Amino acid sequence: xxxxSIPGVGEKTADALQDxxxxxxxxERGDVAAxxxxxxxxPGRAARIARGAIRRNYDDAGNITATxxxxxxxxxxxxxxxxxxxxxxxxxxxETLYPSAARTRIEDxxxxxxxxMERDPSPAVRDALAGVEPLSEPTDLRIRDRCLAxxxxxxxxKAREAIPEVSVELVEDARTLSELARGYATVVVxxxxxxxxxxxxxxxxEPDALDDPSSVVPERTLAFFAQxxxxxxAAARVHRQAGLDAPCDLGxxxxxxxxxxxDGEVRGDEELDRLTDxxxxxxxxxxxxxxxxxxxxxxxxxxxxVTIEGTDLLSLVERGAGVDSLLQRELADEYDAAVAAxxxxxxxxxxxxxxxxxxxxxxxDEPTYPVEHDESVINRLRTELTAARDRRATEQKxxxxxxLAGMREDCEQLVERALELDVDLAIARFAADFDCTMPALGGxxxxxxxxxxxxxxxxxxxxxxxxYEVTGVxxxxxxxxxxxxxxxxxxxxxxxxxxxxxxxxxxxxxVGRVAELQYYxxxxxTLDAGAFESTLREFGELTTSVSxxxxxxxxxxxxxxxxxxxxxxxxxxxxxxxLADRDATAVFVSHLASEIRETAAxxxxxxxxxxxxxxxxxxxVDRSPVKGQxxxxxxxxxxxxxxxxxxxxxxxFYQSLLEKF
Length: 661
Ligand SMILES: Nc1ncnc2c1ncn2[C@@H]1O[C@H](COP(=O)(O)OP(=O)(O)OP(=O)(O)O)[C@@H](O)[C@H]1O
Description:
Layout (H helix, E strand, L loop, with lengths): L10 H8 L4 H7 L2 H4 L7 H15 L10 H15 L5 H7 L8 H15 L5 H7 L16 E5 L2 H10 L4 E4 L3 H10 L2 E4 L13 E3 L7 H4 L1 H10 L1 H14 L7 H9 L11 H34 L6 H10 L3 H8 L1 H19 L5 H5 L14 H31 L2 H26 L6 E2 L4 E6 L14 E5 L2 E6 L5 H17 L7 E4 L4 E5 L8 H17 L6 E6 L7 H17 L3 E5 L3 H7 L5 E5 L1 E5 L2 E4 L12 H12 L2 H12 L2
Parallel strand pairs: 1-2, 1-3, 3-4, 5-9, 8-12, 8-13, 10-11, 11-12
Antiparallel strand pairs: 6-7, 6-9, 14-15
Helix pairs in contact: 5-22, 6-21, 7-21, 8-13, 12-20, 13-14, 13-21, 15-18, 15-20, 24-25, 26-27
Protein name: DNA-binding protein MutS2
GO biological process, one term: mismatch repair
InterPro entries: DNA-bd_MutS2_arc, DNA_mismatch_repair_MutS_C, MutS, P-loop_NTPase, RuvA_2-like
């Protein structure tokens, strides 16, 4: 795939993407998290690139939101979904959903949405999802107890490239090889020519080692699983809890992972634990053995009366013999028992097996008081135990790596499915939280029934449902705070969600295909001449851009505020006529609906959000616009109320005011 053919991807970005493991796959999957791992590419940019790739695949002209308020609605829709994700991945992945102009794209997302809406976002699944994140590659793995050796310069270069985790050494002959073996626990020789040579230490002749690096460094396989262990365990839990089809045997994976520590060491092996503890506890065990022996001996000596004949004493003194020889002569049996206790304590405390006889030699038969160990024997014991521990660890690593090696691809799928489930669950929760349905696609304009906006400043439970259908060009009139702006937001939201392929917050909805959503929010106050001119230009361009194959939905909120009322009524009438001529769909909210209708040369439909009356100073409003009915304005309603309520002479004044409406 030519990466530069994706909209928004230049040479530099393409180079950065090319360094990823599988840039095409990441683009195909819309894997924003993977794309964001390319150097210099932020998650926001990664999402734009993924959207660009989708647009190219679907030959899609792009996002239908054509104005800042339309884009805000899209952002709000996205936030409502993103708030319902557990993982960062799903949150970023949702950014690849955009309101598309391509029917095939919308249909593809709708298919996924239907499946997503059937999923059950149970707390147990969400809990498990909290532990899942995209897999990562371990870096800087260095193995220091092994090295590779060769006398061939070419093999040396190949080895450095194939197995960078260990040192590679150039050797000249058997002597230099033996020297090397003294510095490493294991030396793997890559040259056949050394076979048959008598070498000291753990030197292995393995000319094919470079073909299977994990035979030399099982840590390479293990490091990936160790680094991602918690994520993989969580992804397995997600599969169990959600009843998802797993790509591999979850039990086998979980049991293999339970034998691995996050630092890549094998755990749960009794023999390895025994040897590790023995190496760690050796000094403490030696002290304990000495203490046991000396306690024994001290007690024995304390309890004994030693009788010594004068001649013996003399001869002892003459020979310069110390108390040791007295010990040997008088307490030989006790000494033997004390040493036996010391040996037993050392062997027992360290749980020794193969190295028992070495350990026993740590306490000599020659009587001394206090009983002391032979440090050189203990050093030998330490060396033997350490070597046995390392051998066992490496064996175990090979075994575990062999179990896990074949599972890598399945694990990648396992995590991907779990993360994608989070995307589905966010959609399912959004649909459930806002009582959504899948809208029907097609026809002219739009029709919504029982629609409730999640964008209002009131809690969703308090939102009153709205029905509204528009085909063609319509003015929407209504009392102050009747909910006109809220309806434009709601219509924009429903249109955006529909074109994203998502469900909409309504009992029923039908949305005609739109190539552009042109939403203009109310301006704050009159525009100066320059701003007024550029606004007019915008509408000029807009009215000429509408055509049958470029259906445009125009939503405009109180355009009259851009200039003085008379002029703005004329301008709006003109824009509406032009849009009506081109069969566009448009809703213009305005307090000048009646003036505009009078000015316009063609018939313009007017709908109204009507107040049913005033109660305690509050308007009672039916939020669904009434078709074909100009709503009475708030001032008119208040004058009418005063005309009804006031005493005779005042009532006449209010009556005359009312007649002017
Ligand atoms: N469907 C609804 N359910 C509940 N409350 C609503 C609904 N629609 C609007 N409201 C409430 O009415 C308030 C005013 O709504 P909105 O701003 O849409 O009215 P408006 O007709 O555009 O007002 P104005 O004529 O002053 O511009 C909202 O902030 C919201 O609190």
